[in-house]
Predict the structure.
Amino acid sequence: MKRQSFQSPDAGRTGLSILLALVTILLVACGDPPWNNPHPPAADDLLTYQSVMTPAPPKHLDPAISYASDEALFIMQIYEPPMAYHFLKRPYELLPGSLAAFPEVTYLDEQGTEIAEDDGDPAYTRYTLRLRDDLHYQPHPAFAKDASGAPLYLFDSAAAGAAYRRIPDFPQTGDRPVQANDFVYSVKRLADPLNGSPMLGFMSQYIVGMREFSETLAQVPRSGWLNLDDYPMKGLSVMDEHTLTITIMGRYPQFVYWLAMHFFAPVAPEVDRFYHNPGFEERNLTLDWWPVGSGPYMMVKNDPNSEIVLERNPNYREEFFPTEGAPGDLEAGFLEDAGKPVPFVDRAVFRLEKEVLPLWTKFLQGYYDRSGEVHGNTNGVFDQAFVVGPDGVEVSEELSEHQIVMSPDVKPGIYYYGFNMRDPVVGGYSEDKRKLRQALQIAFNTEEYLNIFRKGNGIAAHNLIPPGIPGHLKGEEGMNSYVYDWVDGEPRRKPIEYAKQLLEEAGYPNGRDARTGEPLKIFIDVQSQAIGNTSMNWIDRQFSQIGVQVEFRPADWNRTREKLLTGNTQIFSHGWLADYPDPENFLFLLYGPESPLECQCDGSNNSNFMHPEYDELFRRVRVLPPGPERDELVARMVEIYRREAVWLYAFYPKDIYLNNSWVHNTKRHGISKATLKYIRIDDRQRQQMRQKWNQPVTWPLYAGVFLIGALVLPGVNAYRRRQNATARQGGK
Amino acid sequence: MFAYIVRRLLYAIPILIGVNLLTFTLFFVVNSPDDMAVSQLGEKYVTPEAIAAWKKKNGYDKPLFVNAEGAGLAAVTDTIFFTKSLKLFAFDFGRSESGRDITTDVSTRMWPSLAVALPTFIVGIWVNICVALLVVMFHATRLDRWAVFVFVCLMSISYLFYIIGGQYLVAKTWKLVPISGFHADAQAWKFLILPVLVGVVAGIGSGARWYRTLFLEEANQDYVRTARAKGASEIGILFTHILPNALIPILTGVVVLIPSLFMGSLLIESFFGIPGLGSYMLDAIKSQDFAIVRSMVFIGSILYIVGLILTDISYTWADPRVRLN
């Protein structure tokens, strides 16, 4: 009996035809190309900026708690602090943000009587902040009220509000103008120990009464929301609806820079109360996840697992694109939108991308407008993205064809390997110790290190103050003459023979201790995730040129921190990114009282550098206003830093961001993240390019079907032959 | 059978306590609450006050196992171990170190994990069994030898290669599907095709080779020879005789995985941007979020135990001679 179902000679061909038909149906069902668009179809015609968050979602979005640049990316679009930065001007320029004018500064004596600025050291400084009168919060359910004017969404139990899981679930919203008390409330939130703000310890040194306020709150029994308005803080007062004062201890001119950070952005008490509804925290309905502000954008979706969506705040005040910029901005096209109202884009979507390849592919396919926000994300694909030409790094041919534009960004920060100045071998202030450290500095070829291990994304530091910040000098006058010579119009590292000579003078001829004959061995503490074997081998080779041996001691950040706090290190790796663009924010890294061993705290002077002249100069620089006198003192401090050779090497980190051609106003701002409102998109060009770049290649699908057929058909035939075969060959 | 299941569930309790204790001890040997505070607070202005405030806010200001100051039961209950680890038995996962509710996160993220893992699992098993049966049908022929060679090659290739190669060819070069991402709507299939395809192809080598071995053992049994002698077709022999008899070892390896499908895949989810539990776990490890890791280990242990029980039950279905006593 014949088994027709499986032995028909047409069975394989029929199967193949069905498979081909299925593939064709599938292709038709996919609709019009492009098929690889990762974004859902737009439900409206809002102009949307498509970007990324990498490599992890933000942890905190509460302006009192957050202290990370990838979180500031969102917070600074939603909140508007009292001060802001000019988008284009360099060096960075401070401007009033939510204030109508710069704060008025008044100096006070011990009794609180006003004194003149130059009338000795004031006991207190009072900042009077006058708000703009057009500040308004975004629409939010916290402001919604019932007919009697009472808050609409205040619940007695978790069950009563259980229907609401996200902010968009609330059908009613309200809003109101920003008031002076909201700024006072936000400062009080910094002091509330329950919030665990990173600013509490630091700002308590300055804001009058902050520490006492915090201690008082710590004693208050809590059940639900605590109205901070019921507890006064001595250094804060509301003068009227649009005016407040903040009083700080002594003189601290840099305080005005802090006012440009989100810690001082207004928080409405009713918002705080709303988020303390019973059961809200369990559903992640907190200020930490659903920020509420008066900035140009508001959060409409917070899914940290996949995307965060911001939309234009309909209540945002009138604001215009700057009409002035830095030299070269006009030629670069950064002033094309001068005087136009901002923001330009209606919606910004930030999708989570953890891996480089998908991110990079989507950027090249035009589905992301820029390669990154906080990070350029170009290091992992450097060889595909760039070529090193006569003028330095340029975009590759493929990127040129896509008219992709490069935005290099030197960050206002510094990474360094520091010497522990209390170490018996490399530390100390004698001439031979200085020479030893200088010899090691010369042997470590920073430029080569940056070229090999950071693909040129860094600038060797001659100064502890990075570019863009007063005190950083370029050219010959900005050169560290202890390590470099000025040759043919550029700094050139001193020859290795000179390093050997210094080493000999320091008591280590050929890298051996002249007294004991023991080889000189130095120990470098590094964070294990920040260094690889190749870079350790390279560093080892650098020092072997002068006969010095190196041993690395990798550890995680917690162990490294412990060593720094106890001074149990010889050479350590560290870094610092500026909070504000003032030389003081870098010079304090070597201020004696900031040494962890000195203050018995988490001080920033991890080198434990103690230099009376430097410390005295720092104390003067800290209180002096910008000007020639201050510049001169800064230059003297930098000279001490160079002469004492406090750090083994240092560099200013650089990152390269890429922008598709339809994105405009892409100038990077090293300090402020409140720049989304200036981004402009040419949506028509974007659609055209996406269509052009993403036409699918369908032949592999058909080839796959034929391949399957080529594999299956012979199998079917072989099976058929086998089923039909007789026990004996040729028999029946 | 009911008594057996109840007994197995009761056995699970000491196992879970042991897992819990081990995870807790391991974590606190590596990381003290102060270390955790420093990791979460960042690198700037980490004052002792800030550390103390973080510990208080997150409940790490208590003793680890015994609270000498606690009266009565509070000596045990007012400790980090009780509040952070033993509460898991009430499925109270608490909050992550960044303040998010873990139960909400887990219940949200398990669906994308399942959306990838379930089709990969089902299609993968089906493909592996079919390929293995096909190869068994041509046992001791050139096709069989080549197939084994290809299986070994496929097994030897890193999983990462399949992912990156798949993304490069299908999504980057041919532009047929999005390279990564996920939307829980009607368009979700667009994002699932590639990870499922990669998962299935990457598993063929080891899966088909293993099943081939199991099927070959059965293919040489007397009952197969008898069926063949009675004129049964090869296809019929494979699917109605060999496959059911080889099910016990297959079920041993497969059923235990079913509950764990909720846990997702670390690599696939990370590379394809699937917001599932696999990437949740990976992120938690990277950011040293002990609360999430502890909860995920606990859930993983429970699912594994459930998987083992289901495996035992499935034996009774596959082989009526098996009795659970």
Notes: The radius of gyration of chain B is 25 Å.
